[in-house]
Amino acid sequence: MPVLISSLAHNTAPGGWRGIIFTATEKKNMLENVVIEGAETGIQARFSNFTSGWLSVSRCKSGIRLQDSVATLSDGVIAENSSGIIADNSELTINSINLERNRAGITIGKSALMGTDVTMRGNDGCGLSADGSQLKLERFSVTTSENGACLTTVEGSISSSAFKDNRESGLVLSASRLRLSGNIFSGNRVGIQSADHLPALWDNALINNRSYNILYLGDEPFHAGGNWFGEEDRDKSELSVFSKKPVMVRIEPLLKANPYSGK
Predict the structure, then answer these.
(1) Are 206 and 187 in contact (CB under 8 A)?
(2) What is the number of domains present in the chain?
(3) % of the chain at pLDDT higher than 90
């Protein structure tokens, strides 16, 4: 049976108790098979390390907050918090985690995030927000948020991931040297919005987005060849791409089939 940690009061509204705090501890701190409800911050770590096995954090003002810390989360649910995960100057690894119905999913600054088999669904703002950080994401699914991911000054890679059915953009990029391969962007208003030509994308499916598959706001040519736009015909594919200046997005060569192998 999971261990429930919550306020002594029957009311588990956010902020009913302080939460679990790690401060300046690099010991083998581990939480496994734990349910945390109704805290100010479910887990707060400052200059500390911790790992978790199965973990549920819900109805907190902040689910998990890291500052100058290292954390590995494996298996669990982070749901119905004002903020799911916040990390500053930290290293975060998440595997097989669901983040659902938070006001903000994951927000990181000057941090490293590695994620595999992560599902983010129904978060009100950006599913993932990152600034000045490094990412390595694989099989990362972001759906039904305002924006799937908003990334500024980010480096790293996203592969075999899905950005689908978000109300605005699947992925918003600025000043980010990011490698995107084997992903799908579908059902958003805009698939990928980029402020510049820095990202590299190939073997992606950009299909059935409501306004544009790519919205490009940069001033230099942006190379987007080697992707699938739902059509083998170049002229039809170009109709789904918009650039601030004419003909700034180069989509050839076109893939002839959908490369995305996930669900």
Answers:
(1) no
(2) 1
(3) 84
Is there a domain that residue 230 lies in?
A: yes
pTM score, whole prediction: 0.95
Residue 232 corresponds to which tokens in the numbers above?
A: 């083998």
Q: How confident is the model at residue 260 (pLDDT cuts 50, 70, 90)?
A: confident
In a domain, 30, yes or no: no
Strands 184-186 and 169-174: unpaired
- Angle in degrees, CA 70, 76, 79, rounded to 5: 95
List, for residues 60-94, the tens digit of each pLDDT value: 999 999 999 999 999 999 999 999 999 999 999 99
Domain span holding position 261: 125-263
Output the DSSP codes for the chain: -PEEE--SSS---TTSB--EEEES--S--EE-SEEEESBSEEEEEES-EEEESSEEEES-SEEEEEES-EEEEEEEEEES-SEEEEEES-EEEEEEEEEES-SEEEEEES-EEEEEEEEEES-SSEEEEEES-EEEEEEEEEESSSEEEEEES-EEEEES-EEES-SSEEEEEES-EEEEES-EEESSSEEEEESSS--EEES-EEE--SSEEEEE--SS-EE--S-B-S-S-HHHHHTTEEESSTT-EE-PSPPSS------
d(CA 113, CA 72): 10
Give the residues across from 116 on adjacent strands.
Answer: 95, 138
| Whole-Å CA distances, 157 to 11, 84, 114, 116, 199 | 42, 22, 10, 12, 10
